[in-house]
Amino acid sequence: MNANKLNTMLNDLNQLKDELTLKANLGVAQAQDELKKLEPIYEELKAKTEKIADVAGDTASELKAAAELGIDAESSEDVETALELAGEQLKNAYEKVKHILS
């Protein structure tokens, strides 16, 4: 066996391992930062959704709750659409974080 060839192979593998370890650590840190940014958005959406769900079925109460929550809506369908859109945007942001980690 050629010792130089084996040493070169091991050096190349070590360099690749170190590079991937660094990228993985940076990816994890980036994902953690993104998750921290998304947490308050999730909590706000959760609170809004729960408040609307508490009055679901009573259109007047839904619209009043929506207005109090800063949701511009003229019908209960508008309220639902606004919450679904916000949920979809948050889901897309979480998918980006998932992609960072994969």
Write the layout of secondary structure elements.
Layout: H1 3-54, H2 59-68, H3 76-101
Helix pairs in contact: 1-2, 1-3
Commentary on this structure:
With 102 residues, this protein is mostly helical. The chain has one domain (30-101). Helix content is 86%, strand content 0%. It contains 3 helices and no strands. α1 runs antiparallel to α3.
Summarize this structure as a short list of keywords or feature phrases:
102 residues; mainly alpha
Major beta-sheet overview: none
Proportion of helical residues? over 70%
Rg estimate, integer Å: 24 Å
Give the N-terminus to C-terminus distance in angstroms: 38 Å
Shape: rod-shaped
Low-confidence stretches: none
Domains (count) = 1
What is the average per-residue confidence, as pLDDT, rounded to a whole number?
89
Task: Kindly name the structural category.
Answer: mainly alpha
Give the beta-strand count: 0
Short characterization:
With 102 residues, this protein is mainly α. Helices cover 86% and strands 0% of the residues. The chain has helices at residues 3-54, 59-68, 76-101.
